[in-house]
Write a structure and sequence with these properties.
Layout (H helix, E strand, L loop, with lengths): L28 E4 H4 L12 E4 L1 H10 L1 H9 L2
Antiparallel strand pairs: 1-2
């Protein structure tokens, strides 16, 4: 295997802080900003992705459970 064919090791990066106002916890999941706004309408306009910490990701899942279920049924 030549050096050019070897996979490069992943560089560990510092996780981004959660985008929800007054929360600075490290993010564990990233959602599309439009999807994240369904659960948190007061998110700032910052890029296309919304990093969320574990607690806010769980809150988003709980808040959007019914609409996501209906979307799956429409397939």
């Amino acid at each position: 295997m030549s050096p050019a064919d070897r996979p490069r090791p992943r560089v560990e990066q510092e996780p981004e802080p959660c985008l929800v106002p007054r929360c600075g916890s490290p993010s564990v999941r990233h959602l599309a900003l439009s999807e994240a706004r369904k659960g948190f309408p007061d998110l700032p306009e910052k890029g296309r992705r919304a990093p969320l910490c574990r607690e806010h990701y769980r809150a988003w899942k709980k808040a959007t459970r019914d609409s996501r279920k209906l979307d799956r049924l429409a397939w």
